[in-house]
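Researcher: I'd like a structural prediction for the single chain below. Treat it as a standalone chain; there are no partners to consider.
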Amino acid sequence: MKTSIQIGKVMGIPIKIHISFLLVLVLFPVVFSSDAEFGFADVASAPLRYALALTLTILLFSCVLLHELGHSWVAMRYGIGIRSITLILLGGIAAMEEVPRDPRAEMRISIAGPLVSLTIGVLCYLAYLGLGIYDIVQIPTISHISHFLWSIAYINIVLFVFNLIPAFPMDGGRVLRAWYAGRMPYLRATRKAVHIGKMFAIVMGVLGLFASIWLILIAFFIYIGASEEEKYAEVSVTLEGISVRDLMTSEIAYVQDNLTISELLRLMFEKKHLGYPVVDQFTGKIVGIVTFADIRSVPMSEHGNVLVRDVMKNVIFIPEDADAMDALKSMSTENVGQLLVQDRGSITGIVSRTDLTRSIEVLGYHER
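Model: Treating it as a single chain, here is the predicted structure.
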């Protein structure tokens, strides 16, 4: 996520917070400071009340982080890399390099997070019971700690149950897909699990009209997440067994870095390509890549003055024997529309996002 900042690393995994997480640091303390059951509405001192509420918020999202680390630890045991873990408004996201196709692996990875939440909940509740004897003497510090333990225990157990709802992107949706995938083709299993997830989202949204706006937001999150999961599965299955070599364009037109935008536009019109590798006008070495998207922000009045080197992006290379799905991931991660294809250090072609989407449409037609 481009709107995230890294705050550290755990197990070698970058830990990030999304910009939406800033709302958490404002919204949740306000809620906890005014809630008598989970929060600290009964604390007389306003500064102390908000400090305790903020502490509870941080502890809660630390538990969310541990939940995601549970997924990540099991995934890494299966050889799946974790690009990052990002904390967002509605929880956390562990960005895995690939979705496991082995049903048993996906089942274990998916269930690991909820089991971490359950473990935290049970341990905190036992600690809460252990501190119960001190309630008699009404020591403020002990009372606050006891309330922290009870709140964290309750919320984590609720998270355990909630995450097992069989709906993407909840863990329960992945568990359901893994169960189906052991009995039918992967794409069909995904579609069945997605259908059930969408039904849950619709029911939750209707209930939210009468109960809470939070249910509506969560229902929207689930419905969109289920749709995205279905699209991802269709793409990954469609591109399975397809290499970059099969999709790339072998004929490459290069442009020099001292070309003006006006000259580049004329070339694009003539060659009918929207992306070109850029070479240094003196050395002939590749120094970047320029696309139509890169020049759209340049005012028309400046087209004769702005040079290609002023708007070009860093070039990303990919081996020609790489999977087409890897090319699509690279484009998404690096936010580029074209990749240069290499074979043993030599440039052999160029592959674009358009090449991939066109192939997905054609190859996936029979699946519709």
